[in-house]
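WARN no homologs supplied; continuing
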Amino acid sequence: MDSNNKSKNENNEINESNINLTNIKSNYILSKMFVGVKKILKFEIIKYNKKLQNRLNLNIDNYKEYSEIFTPIEIEIIPIKIKNKYGKFININKNYKSNYHIYFNDNKEETKNKYEIEEEDKVKKIKIIIDHQVKSIEKLFKDCECIESIKFKKFYRNNFNSMSEMFYNCWALKEVIFSSFNTNNVTNMSYMFYECLSLKKLFLSKFNTNNVTNMSYMFYGCSSLEYLNISNFNTNNVTNMSLMFTLCSSLDIFKLPKFNDKKNTDMNSMFSGCPEYLQKKIASENKNIKEEAFD
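OK structure emitted
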């Protein structure tokens, strides 16, 4: 392996030196597949091309499969200025604490076990990389009062089953950008944006809600939210939507999905506190929404 490729792989955090790359004709493809790998199975690539593929220990499809498993998530966070206090910006599940890697201001020197920042740190940008071992991102940013922007990058994994309380009480949060956001196996989105008082727009077109059963309190108290289009949501399996949009008092552009009237879904106070004109419009356009949803 030449020094350039070695350096590139080291930067991508491969931490086991058991890979032998010799005369790779598709090195560009393979290097993309190794991005962010933390642990890797032992194998050798003697030579890669279609004619010799059958002679390899693993074919190119196997590498693609491993890439999906091992590629970590990247999250960029921009905090607000903090005065004379600590600013908590991430909650780490103690079972997975060693699998979170924090970088401040794009500094490549990893800052471990430092999940709070101070004014004197002069933090402008925070980067979080989460290893594949992490199975839950529940309450990840709960009560993080110093964040105003979050951008999810490379969120391809689908092993998470809950996003409950993920942004709970992030009152300063103005922007969340969900690019390549995989929610295929998520079943719980309750309290997800609970009292995110500063959010004005949310674009959730990437969300797959086919398996979600609980959306209660999902947007509760988002009093600044003006634009919300969730017409792509599949609510066929949802059984709890209680207080889902309660106190969303600024909603103007609001597009809902089709509701299944065959499900015994709890819709108690679903739109309570929303603008009166909006409640009337929702009631007239969605006959399957129960009366208690407007109480």
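The chain has two domains: 3-69, 72-295.
OK
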